[in-house]
Amino acid sequence: MVSATSYIPLEELTSLEAYPSDEKKVQAFYMESARLVQFLLEEHPEQNFLRFIQSIAGGVKFQDALNQIYGGSYQDLTKFEEAFKKKAISSVPVIKDSDSKSE
Prior knowledge:
Number of strands: 0
Number of helices: 5
Structural class: mainly alpha
Order of helices and strands: HHHHH
Largest sheet: none
Helix content: 55-70%
Radius of gyration: 14 Å
Oligomer: single chain
């Protein structure tokens, strides 16, 4: 879980050009990144996430891609961050094993 004190604001998280130098920040970086992906997949249709990743891979900045794909759901980045931060600091990411089979 990302603690409220180690939370990295999305503007900073998405504009990093190198890993943080502080070990605790590195841990927060990975945990928060995993939560961000999980949040986008859980809260919105999967095809939106695929379009979002394709936009970023095509050179669109995070905030612009977020506005293009998810803009109808949030008034602005601040509203998106409010919704995301609640999830990021309140739960542990669940990584689903695609190879596991239900019995």
